[in-house]
């Protein structure tokens, strides 16, 4: 299936400077399906956090005057925890630049009076500097934020960031029931999947589709809600073989509970949403990891989603390679980023390598520590 790229709303590029361990400027081209792979502590999460920071700020008040370091998606504590530790005293600011839906937005932030915020000191949209237009006599951004930020409401690249859904690696484990909460009215499972059971009761329209997808991934598994609902308590049952009334989540494998928020959130996401998922493979058998990728790719195409996956799973990458070979995806739809460290730089700067997938599903390169652990161990066993 070949997608009409004109119908997509995507972040096509991102650039970071002095943001956490990105001491030097790093520019990354993105695609519709983005897989971020690498060893622990090398910068995978940092790349995603830059997008999440902009998104949680836009979702909070629709403005980027003060970047919210702590919010709906992530909590990075204080400005000093975010600015690169090698930043010079006369250059204590970090920059996040994105190109989204054709709009290029370049922002620069420095410390705010409130340590949990970062103050905007530079804003360029499509090359036009908005803050400099305020003039010297009106140089206080705080006093003139209405005029300074009037253009951002019309910039699609910023508005698109509001339509982002994030599933953390720190997902809620098996939960048998929750107290009814009628105040949860949005279609988000929550960063940790904390709203999952409540959503299943409020969105019964996805029950059939959810059961279908669970059955594909786990070969016959299903989700069951009691026919008789308690006024104060909502319960969930999972059947691993579709031949009983189900079991409490605490009595079946963790993989079911960890994958459920992903499936539900993707099913509920509106067209052209941005989906960010950390470690989708957590607690899943390799075959289930591959089938989950099939689901994500199908939904991505049907709903024109842009997906970001942070993963340590070779099976996740192989699932995308197979989709390209089978002509379900085009090579340009896939972006595999391998993040390591520059061994010649003692500042610990991330080294980002783009791994291309050709029409046969072959990868352009295999850097050290990229999908090679099985071969390394096998060679020692021979």
Q: Low-confidence parts, pLDDT < 50 over ≥5 residues? A: 1-6, 133-150
Number of helices: 10
The CATH class name of the largest domain reads: Alpha Beta
Mean pLDDT: 87
**Estimated structural class:** alpha+beta
| Helical fraction | 25-40%
Beta content comes to 15-25%
Written description of the protein model:
The chain has 382 residues and is of the alpha+beta class. It folds into two domains: 5-163 and 270-381, Rossmann fold; 172-269, no CATH class. The chain is 27% helix and 23% strand. It has helices at 44-61, 79-82, 145-149, 156-159, 196-202, 207-218, 254-268, 286-303, 314-325, 373-381, and strands at residues 11-17, 26-29, 33-38, 66-68, 93-100, 103-111, 117-125, 128-129, 164-167, 177-179, 222-224, 233-235, 237-239, 274-278, 306-311, 334-341, 350-355. Strands 1, 2, 4, 5, 6, 7 and 8 form a seven-stranded antiparallel beta sheet that branches. A six-stranded mixed beta sheet has the order 9-14-15-3-16-17, with helices on both faces. Helix 7 (254-268) runs parallel beside helix 8 (286-303). Residues 1-6 and 133-150 have low confidence and may be disordered.
Q: Could you name the key traits of this structure?
A:
alpha+beta, 382 residues, 17 strands, 2 domains, 10 helices, globular, Rossmann fold, seven-stranded antiparallel sheet, disordered N terminus
Write the layout of secondary structure elements.
Elements lengths: L10 E7 L8 E4 L3 E6 L5 H18 L4 E3 L10 H4 L10 E8 L2 E9 L5 E9 L2 E2 L15 H5 L6 H4 L4 E4 L9 E3 L16 H7 L4 H12 L3 E3 L8 E3 L1 E3 L14 H15 L5 E5 L7 H18 L2 E6 L2 H12 L8 E8 L8 E6 L17 H9 L1
């Amino acid at each position: 299936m070949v997608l009409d790229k004109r119908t997509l709303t995507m972040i096509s590029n991102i650039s970071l400077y002095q943001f956490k361990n990105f001491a030097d400027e790093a520019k990354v081209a993105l695609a519709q399906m983005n897989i971020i792979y690498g060893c622990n502590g090398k910068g995978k999460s940092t790349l995603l956090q830059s997008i999440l920071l902009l998104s949680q700020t836009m979702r909070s008040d629709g403005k980027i005057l003060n970047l919210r370091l702590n919010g709906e998606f992530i909590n990075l504590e204080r400005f000093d925890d975010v600015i690169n530790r090698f930043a010079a005293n006369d250059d204590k600011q970090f920059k996040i630049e994105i190109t989204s839906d054709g709009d290029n937005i370049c922002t620069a932030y420095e410390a705010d009076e409130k340590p949990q915020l970062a103050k905007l000191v530079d804003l360029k949209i499509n090359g036009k500097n908005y803050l400099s237009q305020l003039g010297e006599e009106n140089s206080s951004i705080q006093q003139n934020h209405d005029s300074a930020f009037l253009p951002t409401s019309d910039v699609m690249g910023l508005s698109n960031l509001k339509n982002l859904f994030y599933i953390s690696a720190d997902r809620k484990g098996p939960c048998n029931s929750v107290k009814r909460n009628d105040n949860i009215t949005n279609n988000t499972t929550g960063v940790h999947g904390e709203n999952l059971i409540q959503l299943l009761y409020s969105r019964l329209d996805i029950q059939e589709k959810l059961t279908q997808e669970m059955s594909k991934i786990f070969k016959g598994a299903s989700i069951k809600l009691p026919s008789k609902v308690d006024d104060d308590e909502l319960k969930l049952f999972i059947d691993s073989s579709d031949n009983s009334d189900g079991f409490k989540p605490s009595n079946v494998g963790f993989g079911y509970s960890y994958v459920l928020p992903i499936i539900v959130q993707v099913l509920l996401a509106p067209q052209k949403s941005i989906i960010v998922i950390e470690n989708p493979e957590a607690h899943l058998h390799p075959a289930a990891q591959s089938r989950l990728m099939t689901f994500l790719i199908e939904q991505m195409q049907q709903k024109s989603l842009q997906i970001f996956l942070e993963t340590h799973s070779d099976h996740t990458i192989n699932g995308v390679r197979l989709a390209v070979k089978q002509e379900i995806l085009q090579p340009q739809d896939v972006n595999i980023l391998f993040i390591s460290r520059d061994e010649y730089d003692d500042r610990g700067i991330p080294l980002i390598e783009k791994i291309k997938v050709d029409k046969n599903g072959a990868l352009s390169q295999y850097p050290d520590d990229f999908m090679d652990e099985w071969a390394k161990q096998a060679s020692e066993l021979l």
